[in-house]
Amino acid sequence: MNPTTATTWDEFMEGVWRQNPVFVMVLGMCPTLAVTVSGVNALSMGVATTFVLVCSCALVSLMRSFTPKEVRIAVYIVIIATFVTVVDYVIQAISLALYDALGAFIQLIVVNCIILGRAEAHASKNTPMPAMINAAGMGVGFTIGLLALGTVREVLGAGTLFGVALFGAQFQPWVIMVLPPGGFFVLGAWLLLFSWWARRKAGKEATQNA
Fold first, then answer.
1. Which residue pairs from 104-111 have beta carbons closer than 8 angstroms and sit at least 24 positions apart in sequence?
2. Mind telling me which residue stretches traverse the membrane in this protein (predicted)?
3. Is the pTM of the predicted complex or chain greater than 0.85?
4. Is the dihedral of CA 137, 142, 146, 149 positive or negative?
5. Coil, strand or helix at 165
6. Domains of the chain: which residue ranges?
């Protein structure tokens, strides 16, 4: 792998794994807990957020040289809101049922701290391509986090996965999983798993370096 490819891969993987917005940085918890009652909802919100992330970071990067520092946050919000409006209308056109299921959380992508954080911390300081790659990694990482919660909650709470029945008629759904407390339980379990894995990896590295 040549240095350029390695750098590009590192930019992408930062958000997917090392700085995953859900399991490492614990950002965007409102949509993470609210819309992940099913795999379809989780995937749809993840894709929508990724689209807004990539497009807004690309435009912020292009405008970084002539955006006054005093109004940069306002400019970022206007840019993000523009792409959120596009997503809002596209989801309405594709499926009203999905639009109703996601509710106000589509519009609330505007204030998602992941997007504004990437715009301020990365896109405003880098050229468009690295900014878009980094944003894509963050979007994919966020989508993975949503899917991790959404699939568990749907399987246990409804006995389905992406609407496809997995168990027979005798299956008793864990109703709590599709209620708000279920989101906290599943998120806590995933965070515990990631914390255990990180400590285990750190222990192995310490043993190897000893």
1. 105/30, 105/31, 105/34, 105/35, 105/45, 106/45, 106/48, 108/30, 108/31, 109/31, 109/48, 109/49, 109/52, 109/80, 109/84, 110/77, 110/80, 110/81, 110/84
2. 21-40, 46-66, 73-91, 97-119, 131-151, 171-194
3. yes
4. positive
5. strand
6. 3-209
